[in-house]
Fold this protein.
Amino acid sequence: MSEFFAMGGYAFYVWTAYGLTFVLMLLGIIKPLLTNKQILRSLILKRKREKTS
Amino acid sequence: MFMRFIYKFSSPPYFYAISGKMLPWLTALFLVLLGYGLYGGLVTAPADYQQGDSFRIIYVHVPAAWMSMFIYVVMAISGGIGLVWRIKLAEIVSISSASVGASFTFLALVTGSLWGKPMWGTWWVWDARLTSELLLLFLYLGVIGLYSGIEDKRVASRAVAILALVGVVNIPIIHYSVEWWNTLHQGATVTKLDKPSIHIDMLIPLLFMAGAFKVYYLIALLLRSRNELLEREQNAKWIDELLEEVK
Amino acid sequence: MKKTSSLFNAFGAVIKRDLLLAYRFRAELINPLAFFVMVITLFPLALGAEIALLKRIAPAIIWVAALLASLMSIESLFRADYDDGSLELMVMTPHPLSILVLAKVIGHWLVSSVPLLFIAPLMGMMLHMDTDIIGVLMLTLLLGTPVLSLIGGIAVALTLGLRKGGALLAILVLPLYVPILIFASSAIDAAMTGFPVSGHLSMMCAILFLALTLTPLPTAAALKMSLS
């Protein structure tokens, strides 16, 4: 198991590469999901404002 | 029949609904492909006799590089379609691809550096392939910057479509750079018309990872397109119905 | 009497107008030239006057200075006409806009880059370049600077309507400039190491012709879009 993590001595390079990839791809999904909720919320508020005016 | 499907698909409410239903399935597909790819790449594939285990970076570096070029071409083509036929969804797909493509280009460059340092002894070299990939990143950033700088988003879409089409010339330069110039970067091993010159046990996980990244692109694209669509169609009637459901 | 002028006359008229305007404001002609000279002068001041070093990097310095000078002056390609409304008039003429765009770019190149071409050999000598290398440098500048103006025109047309277009212009333009710089420097490299340059120069010629024929089209499209 520790051999797996050591990656033949190249652990830093391999795991940084995979880690960075994983993090960026995850952020690339989470950010639009959050933005989606935020947009829907602001649209609902906008509709409410327009209805009362 | 097919034209009717395309016609319906490019209507905003239909697109929003269908993409929402597709997302869970796409996520499942992505995880399956990613699982096979990672297991194959990190565990099953034999260590390279020259490079040892560091070659495993290939399983993120190469798919990221492929995606950086593929996404740019999609961005340029959909931008062109939006420019010529003024189809809103084409414009949206084009700009939604930009940040995903920029991320993959960045990843390709960084994972490439992380692979290059133990292999070539240097983090960076100004050879044709690395330089043109860096240019690709600047082109993406230019598209993103230009789009955010123009207020009217329909005008902005036309501007970035022109920019993307002008820059598409860079893509064949990146791909063929290893043939045209003497570069440090190794030549093509998979995407050539001959048999791939890579061992099959190493190739299969690479193809799985490439497939996984393509599905990921589709997921990210749909998520961002939905947001862009909501912002553009703010006052449309179908949004009212959508908001009712969401509440 | 003809109601509309021929395309050839229109082309000539645009160039003549730009040259006349440049002549009337000829004090401004000095600006790109002075910038070019000053940027080049900074390098020996920063690096020290060691002749061998300067000789090796001189072509690169001159090319980068030409690139930056082109970047600085390219904004004026459409700015004055955009501000006073003559650009809209040009768009509305029955002549194909891309041809008029080509005329504007040629006029701009004549006014801003050709003076650089005259000064460049002098700069080369100041940086201790060999005479035959200066010759190759001149050829690359002659073939390359029009392409810089042509490609710069696309970026200027795209950012014309923006308030803070200037910074964005640099980001858009420099990636597109890089291939020309690479071909020019490989030609000069070949000359400095004694290899034949005809292949590299032919490549630059090809790029020039491609740019002449292809770049006016996206520029015209971008202008129409910016004016809408």
Remarks:
- Chain A has a mean pLDDT of 87.
